Amino acid sequence: MEFDSSPGESQGVSKAPPEAMSADLTKLGSHLISKIHVLMRVSLIYDAKNETFRQFSQESLQAVNALIQKERMVSLKILKNEIFLNEERLRYSADGFTSFKYVLTHWKKKLIGGVTFRELVDERVLNEFIFIFNSLEDGKEDNAARFTKRLADCGIDFVTVTPLEKSVSEEEDTSLEREDNREVAKKVFFETIGTVKDMITQIEGKQYPGVRKLKRLVQKTIHLAVEDESILLGLTTIKNYDEYTYNHSVNVSIYALALGRRLGFSRQMLTELGLTALFHDVGKSKIPKEVLNKPAGLDDEEWVLMKKHPLMGVETILNLKQLGEINPRMVIGIFDHHLKGDASGYPRLFRKKEISLFGRIIQIADVYDAMTTPRVYRKPWTPEQALAFMLRDRGKHLDPTLLKILIGLVGIFPIGSLVLLNTGELGIVFKPNADSKWMDRPQVILISRDQKGDVKKELADLTATNGGSQFKRTIVKTLDPNQYHIDIAKYFL
Ligand SMILES: [Fe+2]
Ligand SMILES: [Fe+2]
């Protein structure tokens, strides 16, 4: 059986809600946050007279005044884990994440919840603002009042500072942190799909783009995997993004990175592995679309062509710009990803050779994603069916150790499985239990809808008891989501 990936059906996937804030304002707002971020950092090293400080101070001034001119005032407010600009939530790009996080964390530490500038600001005002901020002690309840008073003492009465709203309890904060990671993960995920798509389009047009942008995205993905891997694994349930090939590459890289982490790879190695996984099928850009898009049953000649894609992939990445980012491990990984343990598979080898570790990792990730993805000509396998099949097949084709790690990674009930609970409720496996003793008791999302018919996400931990020794809920069996017309990916967006 062949689980190679060809572009499948292109049903739309639910897109992110439309931006509430105009693109223009979002851009100015994000720019301002990034300038404030830099200025806050620089102000910890230099004083107001320093040239470097003054240069950054000028840039911040321009950023804040551009907004005041446009909007007549600027109010920045922190609510939970978001920044609001003039009462509208400011969305950050994946690139802006560090700045947002820095400003949020440092303002929160000093219990500052917001600032309003009601007039154009000059260098003196901005400097007072930054240095008074620095002088505040962490965690002092009256910091905001103190701040506003000190500004007024300097004759600045058009800048008001407000305290952080207290509703953010410790517990709520961790769940918000998770929510925050989720938003960033989604952004990085879709941005990676978009970047892979752009690169392949360029390659099809015989242009060879650089790899640094993609490398940065892989580094961000690794960072997110360290914070909370289950969010990324949840995103791999999105199987029918407009263009399957790109989505597939990103999914394969997420699984590959998760495997690499369990093998103790360094960040450097993980970055190389992630990039290799994203490029594993790049050779397909050289195969005519009629062949690629053929739902099933390639003829002999077409198969010969299809089997060339690993080699064509090698050729392609060796032609990319910034070749310094590509090393032999990556090239060999691409070459190997369809070779099988007994040296069958393709490309045909004259002499048997060991399959490289990158090749073996990508192969496992590739097969798992391809099997669990719907195609025009067949329904997808459930995660459980796919793993069972891979286990049966393991001696011949797949690396048994890596396969074991994959199973541990997705759990006995893999993330995204639809399960029936003993309460009669349906659930979707959301996160494996961190304690291996409770592998059969993951966190699940209970499937329900609110009165408007919108999907409601209620999270249940299957280790929860009724107070005594009885568990509230237990998985009875897994179900096929296709039979229940349930779009699993919706629950992860
Ligand atoms: Fe693939
Ligand atoms: Fe492939």
What would a concise description of this structure say?
With 493 residues, this protein is an alpha+beta fold.
Distinctive features:
493 residues; alpha+beta; Hypothetical protein af1432; 3 domains; five-stranded antiparallel β-sheet; 16 helices; 10 strands; disordered N terminus; binds fe (ii) ion
Explain this structure to me?
The protein has 493 residues and is of the alpha+beta class. The chain folds into three domains: 23-168, no CATH class; 172-409, Hypothetical protein af1432 (Orthogonal Bundle), CATH 1.10.3210.10; 418-492, no CATH class. The chain has helices spanning 23-43, 51-71, 97-109, 123-135, 143-153, 170-204, 212-235, 244-262, 267-279, 289-292, 300-306, 309-318, 328-336, 357-371, 383-397, 400-410; strands at residues 74-79, 82-85, 88-89, 112-117, 159-163, 418-421, 426-431, 443-449, 455-461, 475-479. The strands form two sheets. The chain has a five-stranded antiparallel β-sheet with strand order 3-2-1-4-5. Strands 9-8-7-6-10 form a five-stranded antiparallel β-sheet, covered by helices on one side. Strand 6 (418-421) and strand 7 (426-431) form a beta hairpin. The relative contact order is 0.08. Mean pLDDT is 84; it is low at 1-19 and 168-172. Bound molecules: fe (ii) ion (2 copies). Residues 5, 248, 280-281, 366 line the site of one fe (ii) ion.
